[in-house]
Amino acid sequence: MAVSVVMPALEMAQETGKLVSWLKQEGEHVRKGEMLLEVETDKAVMEIFLKSLRASLPQVSDADLQWRMEFVWGALAFILCNPHTIAMQTHGACNPVDASKVLSEMIKFFSAGFRAAALPRAVS
Q1: Separation CA 90–CA 95 (nearest Å)
Q2: What is d(CA 81, CA 79) in angstroms, rounded to the nearest whole number?
Q3: Using an 8 Å Cβ cutoff, are 79 and 86 in contact?
Q4: Per residue in 60-112, pLDDT tens?
Q5: H or E element in which residue 39 lies
Q6: What confidence tens digit (pLDDT) does each residue in 12-70 have?
Q7: CA distance 11 to 15
Q8: Residues 39 and 10: beta-carbon distance below 8 Å
Q9: Cα atoms found within 13 Å of the Cα of residue 104, Cβ hemisphere only
Q10: Angle 111-40-79 (CA atoms, 0-180°, nearest 5)?
Q11: CA distances for 69 relative to 42, 76, 92, 120, angstroms
Q12: H-type alpha helices, the chain
């Protein structure tokens, strides 16, 4: 008997996910709460990115890396959702339509934030 399976959203803004593998065979009994399949989402990609950051910045705590990733995603979401705000605020000096310039500026900003996390902290 065929049964529909609805994938719950794993993130607030998730609209899609990629089916990676089935964990059950066709016809095999599945109990409520049991793993049925593996799905890849943007969150999974972010976890891989965080692993790479941890490897390249071993002296930075997991909490500091996570905070910076949240700031990165927040800034990125704001720019993507409000691209013309920066143009208005800078009277056209910043052009949100120039994707390569936006990317270049974001990389400089994000890189500085991650580098700052690796600096020794002042003791008070």
Answers
A1: 9
A2: 6
A3: yes
A4: 888 888 888 888 878 877 877 777 888 899 998 988 888 788 878 877 887 77
A5: strand 37-40
A6: 566 677 777 788 888 888 777 677 777 776 666 556 667 777 787 888 888 888 888 88
A7: 9
A8: yes
A9: 8
A10: 40
A11: 13, 10, 29, 20
A12: 42-56, 62-81, 83-89, 99-118
Integer Cα distance of 27 and 47 in angstroms: 33
Tokens 């994938």 correspond to: 7
- Two tokens, residue 90: 């800078």
Residue type, 36: L
* DSSP, res 9: P
CB burial of residue 87 (10 Å; 0-12, 13-18, 19+): middle
By three-state DSSP, how is residue 38 classified? strand
DSSP 18: E
**Contact indicator for 37, 21 with CB cutoff of 8 Å:** yes
The residue whose two tokens read 């920066």 is: 86
The ranges assigned to domains in the chain are: 12-56, 58-118
